[in-house]
Amino acid sequence: MTIRNLWPAAALALAVLTPPTPAAFAQGFKPTRPVELVVHTGPGGGSDVLARAMVQMIEKEKLAPVRFVVVNRPGGNGTVAAAYLAEKKGETHSLGLFTGNWMTNPLVSAEAKVSLKDLTPIVRLVLEPAVIAVKADSPYKTMGDFIEAAKKNPGKLKQSGGSITSRDNVVRQLLQKSTGAQWAFISFPGGGERIAALLGGHVEMMVIEPQEAGEQIRAGNMRVLAQATEKRLPSLPNVPTLKEAGFDVPIVPQVRGVVAPPGIPAQNVAYWEDLFARLVKTPTWQKYLEDNQFEEGFQKSADLSKFFDTFSARMRTLLQEAGVKVYR
Amino acid sequence: MDVISGLWQGFAVALAPVNLMWCFVGVFLGTVVGILPGLGPAATIAMLLPLTYRMDPSGAIIMLAGIYYGAKYGGSTTAILLNVPGESASVVTCLDGYQMARKGRAGAALGIAAIASFVAGTAGVLGLMLIAPPIAKFALSFSSPEYFALMALGLALVSLLAGHSYLKALLAMLVGLWIASMGTDLFSSTSRFTFGQMQLLDGIEFVVVAIGIFAIGEVLATVESPGDAQTLPVPKGLRNLLPTVQDLKDCRFAFANGSIVGFLIGVLPGAGSTIASFISYGIEKAVSKHPEKFGTGVVEGVAAPEGANNAETGGALVPLLTLGIPGSGTTAILLAALVLWGFKPGPLLIADNPSLFWGLVASMYVGNVMLLVLNLPLVPLFAQILRLPPFVLMPGILGVCLVGVLSAGGGLFDAGLLVLFGVLGYAMRKLDYPTAPLVLGVVLGDSMERALRQSLMMSQGELSILVSRPISAVMLCLAAVILFLPVIKRFNRWRTQAIDTSGDA
Question: Which of B43, B201, B345 faces A215 most closely, judged by CB atoms?
């Protein structure tokens, strides 16, 4: 049974337990006090920056009658923020901005008590594409060159990236599995250090977001071998996708979207779905996506719930294959 | 050539009245968040980011950068007066700064911190202006083995921090390294020493350890012996509250040391201002004529680390502006800000937007002057805090500590940890264990372990990678020499004594 099936029951329970607010019954849900938008990074992290930009846009486009306030609940790469939202069961003025980490971490961390499946899915907003890059003076001109070299010297070539559960490593696992090549994955905590390791020639390859790579390419420091995307990005019209380059591996996007605490009424879900559906249609949002080279990934609650299931299942298999201990 | 005309153009931007105002707003806010422990420049800049959306980008970056380097000025205030490090980069300042305050020289310590900040901060901007592109290339040649060697050097230098017993210092450092290993391991996603606590998944916030051990431990020790807890001496008269000419003379080398070490370490994307401050303190102690006095309140012990953490700002902007690579949390937010305003941070940023870069550089010269003018008059004022009787001051310190930890975002769990580390700090004082090595272990442990494991992953397990690369080989040799110097000295003394006694017999 999915969480969605529980909503009518939860709505009923709430209606019984709480004194009915006339407005809510008359014309559906409308926020009446500031809404908190919970993010799992400290100020300045990826989700925090996106959240603050969203708050700005919602205000500018007058999409909500109340203010949105960004609330930072850092810790455990999303674990703390998810638990915070789960504790607010039934709270109608809280939302959280999730990333794929919120799904991956509960799989690999015994301490995590809450996964995205325990929260109420609202909408999926963006997909962050990735490209595979090498230093500009690297001998590898194509993805095939790199894979061949890795096959000849198993374990010798190196890739810089984030943690072992990050998308960078997932792309590597998928490529290794489909080609039989082997190369090392070296974790760096900061994005800057990963790029520095590549530009300094200490590693041979990295998986990078196109927006980060864009200026390095323009300056002639980096070359993109392939795009880990379904179709070519407008900014890189001449670089093949992995599939076009002959590597038919599933694309695992970095995803961001909105969830709510468990047990909120269906009409609230409908309200938030509608608000974000209007947000993604605004020119401000479209320009933000373009500036950051994100892909539109809008999905409503029902589809998002299915997405959580497939994403979780795929990650579980991949992480087990990568030798990571999976707890659930 | 370019520099002159660029700077000319830059001052035209920076001295425009509206930008002067933004610069002042930035450095003022920076000083305030620097003084308040907990709330750091990164959080402040992130919270102000939405407000800058409609601002002119030159004014906006001048203001945000002002917060960044302004916070480094304020960080020393609570460290010196209350033994509460306002941010991680001021931990070393506590060692001698607080001892100076106990001797009635709080004003001199605060003054020298402001002057060192000004000198080194300006030197950092000079470095950013003159040698940014070549030094950025040099920074790229640093990788994990070099970082490991750098930390090993830092650890060796500061093993000199050891008090009377080498063994006790070593033990304290090992506990520090253990605390640093708590949390989720980056490489395997396994959690270590979390005791099933979700709040420990990210490890223990360094500031919590430092504030607990230094400040709370000190308060507990003071409360225990009320006889000693008299009001600290604060001399009367403005002249006695500022550094003397002799102080400035003593600090000549510390100013240069702080400027150079701070700038160079700042340029490295994997190091940061805390490491810079520790290393410059270690160097200062290593070359000093009276190393045994460090930790008892010598003025160089304040000037070197305070200088280093200010020069670091100029250094940290080098990879950000010349390569688009952020090296720290704060520069990562500045990068996000540049994107928000429609710039494309990367290797071509300066070439595409010269007025932004030069305006920023010029504003940093102006801002550093403003900070000096702003901070020096505050010195006598802040020094008066120590006139408060202990029954007001001690609860006040506890309050400042608690607010600091809570505003850093840890919540009640961290407040509990603060108590725990306070008790540990008190116990260490009673048992005569030095506290600085423990805190150093926490600072360096995580990044040192990471650098070592990255190196070994790069070399497929060959330890030789650490000594086969020239930069890391040199640094490791230096570290070894520093570590064994006391042993050799002791052996020598024992040998001469042995010869003497055998001669007598």
Answer: B345
